[in-house]
Amino acid sequence: MARTFPSATIHAERSARRQRVLLGGKLVFGVAEFSVDCTIRDLSDAGARVKLPIDLATAEDVWLIDVRAGVAYRAGIAWRKRSELGLTFTERHDLKSPTPASMTHLRLLWLECAARPGRLD
User: Fold this and answer.
1) Is residue 57 a part of any domain in this protein?
2) pLDDT tens digits, residue range 89-108?
3) Which of 10, 50, 74, 105 is 20 to 30 A off residue 99, Cα-Cα?
4) 27-51, pLDDT tens digit by residue?
5) How many CB atoms lie within 10 A of CB 88?
6) Main-chain phi, psi angles of 67, to 5 degrees
7) Which residue range forms the structural domain that includes residue 26?
8) What is the 3-state secondary structure (H, E, C) of the chain?
9) Does 56 fall in a domain?
């Protein structure tokens, strides 16, 4: 289960300063078993804060696709507060470059999102 922290503790434990952003993203659970659009609110090299359209019970590990950058991050859930999640990145993959077969589903989701009119970026 993900840890829940008071806001002051979250900022003290964060290893990299996050930049406020408003970007379109997609959270992917499992091997593309389920995905949901999200808004990336803060972003750093080490993690992100994302807002989901609804409060979801989520797995411990997810993939976050930054639609504008064409990047997928494997992430652990550091904290959750209603429909917001704090993510800690463990891997980074450029979806604009050739991807391993095991990541084809992420690239296809990114291409689908990038082609949508009216996306946040």
Assistant:
1) yes
2) 999 999 999 888 989 999 99
3) 50
4) 998 776 789 999 999 999 999 999 9
5) 17
6) -60, -45
7) 7-114
8) CCCCCCHHHHHHHCCCCCEEEEEEEEEEECCCCEEEEEEEEEECCCEEEEECCCCCCCCCEEEEEECCCCEEEEEEEEEEECCEEEEEEEEEEECCCCCCHHHHHHHHHHHHHHCCCCCCC
9) yes
The answer as to whether 1 is a domain residue is: no
Q: Please give the tally of structural domains in the chain.
A: 1
81: how many CB neighbours lie within 10 A of its CB?
13
pLDDT at res. 56: 79
Find tokens 């990047």 and name the residue: 71
Q: What CATH number does residue 67 fall under?
A: 2.40.10.220
Residues 6 or more apart in contact with residue 35 via CB below 8 angstroms: 26, 27, 28, 29, 109
Q: Do the domain assignments include residue 119?
A: no
pLDDT exceeds cutoff 50 at 6? no
